[in-house]
């Protein structure tokens, strides 16, 4: 285990109804690093993310964030520690019952910040993600791309040390994908946060990652730096990054790819 | 063999579903004694459970009281005891019909709403988002709803009792030629405080059942939109059935 790691996983296993989803996952993410996990749909990437976030308890293994095992902490302490992370969910997961600014400033209000101050801070962050003047709009009135950016504003409003992105570009058009990628890069440079991203997009991997891990058949199949992506000769990795149907990748339905 | 497997799978699903209620109850009880309590959310839920249920509850109560007066008249008229209609209406409303009918109406209206709302939040990852925003979803979503259901049910039942008795009065005096003074006198003469208290106690228990069952169904919901639909249906059916079973147990215990 690397003591300098911001996030450290050792021997993490998780099964659902006898089906092994995560099998002996070990991973270290260093401070300030942008780490991307890629893999087929259903490979267990989102389960891994939920295990790290404490939303799903792994069957065995340890997960340390800032050197602490959050699963062993009382619930109140675990929630306090959560203030150091921000999460952008795949579907944004905005609260339908409150306007945009309350969504964005949710943690600040919970931490006791006054309403006017929290609203000003939310407006400032919304401005930063390119959405000025939408404080009082309800989430149902926003487009998919706008929801994603509001989700990002919510994830960073309380200035977290670690940001988790769960498939940040899924469902977005190419232009909006570029907007979100640019925001992620700006955020990484400006705040020097550690980030863990679950992604399918190789464009995002090439533009945003420091290191990339491929999750395949429940294991970390391969880990490499961004520069190694295009030079690797591993057939499974190559098939994935080239997006080919034919190759050695096992599709999980009992057949090899055609 | 297949038949046995199917029985085993059904039993496993049933045990899992039934196990959710004590699981959530344990989480609620483990958190109730410590802040934060989210009072504004409790008040908002009280408004939703109490104030917004008033029309449907009062309409049910007034027609129940009116029907009860008519049916009682048919029976009592056969042996000349029409003056007892008032007593039957008031006793039935306070001890039984008030809490049970309000419980069933609230289970349909509020239980469905709790399960659908929490279920949608679950499948759209809003409950996960709460967790990542340093907020305990049980405290923020479940406890305010359960407390509101437990607090508002007795108040709704008190109003339903009064309106049901008023419905019986209107029909008895206007359609069945009963003397208004005698009717009012007989409404109260044979009542005891235990009749009122037992109904209100039942109402609080029914509120807890509705809150727990519907919140558990929504909170542990999975399977997308179809899962939310199933959870909502289960919340209403299980709440209604449990209310009827609990009503018998409470009645047998209180009046033994």
Describe the structure.
The complex is a heterodimer of chains A (258) and B (256). Chain A is of the alpha/beta class and 258 residues long. In chain A, 33% of the residues lie in helices and 24% in strands. Chain A has nine helices and ten strands. Chain A has helices spanning 45-52, 75-81, 100-104, 106-110, 115-128, 144-156, 174-191, 202-208, 235-242; strands spanning 7-16, 19-29, 34-39, 60-65, 68-69, 85-88, 162-166, 194-198, 211-216, 219-225. Chain A has a six-stranded mixed sheet. Chain A has a four-stranded antiparallel sheet with strand order 2-1-4-5, covered by helices on one side. In chain A, helix 5 (115-128) crosses helix 6 (144-156). Chain A is globular, with a radius of gyration of 19 Å. The model of chain A is unreliable at 254-258 (pLDDT under 50). Chain B has 256 residues and is an all-alpha fold. Chain B has one domain (2-254). Helices cover 86% and strands 0% of the residues of chain B. Chain B contains nine helices and no strands. In chain B, helix 3 (54-77) packs antiparallel against helix 4, helix 3 runs parallel beside helix 6 and helix 4 packs antiparallel against helix 6. At the A-B interface, helix 2, strand 6 and helix 4 of A face helix 5 of B.
Quick rundown:
Helices cover 33% and strands 24% of the residues of chain A. With 258 residues, chain A is an alpha/beta fold. The radius of gyration of chain B is 21 Å and the shape is elongated.
| Poorly predicted parts of chain A | 254-258
- Subunit arrangement of the protein: heterodimer
What structural class results from the helix and strand content of chain A? alpha/beta
Strand content of chain A: 15-25%
Summed up, the domain count of chain B is: 1
Sequence of secondary-structure elements of chain A: EEEHEEHEHHHHEHEHEEH
Topology overview:
The complex is a heterodimer of chains A (258) and B (256).
Chain A: E1 7-16, E2 19-29, E3 34-39, H1 45-52, E4 60-65, E5 68-69, H2 75-81, E6 85-88, H3 100-104, H4 106-110, H5 115-128, H6 144-156, E7 162-166, H7 174-191, E8 194-198, H8 202-208, E9 211-216, E10 219-225, H9 235-242
Parallel strand pairs in A: 3-8, 3-9, 6-7, 7-8
Antiparallel strand pairs in A: 1-2, 1-4, 4-5, 9-10
Chain B: H1 2-32, H2 39-51, H3 54-77, H4 85-123, H5 126-132, H6 137-174, H7 180-189, H8 193-219, H9 224-254
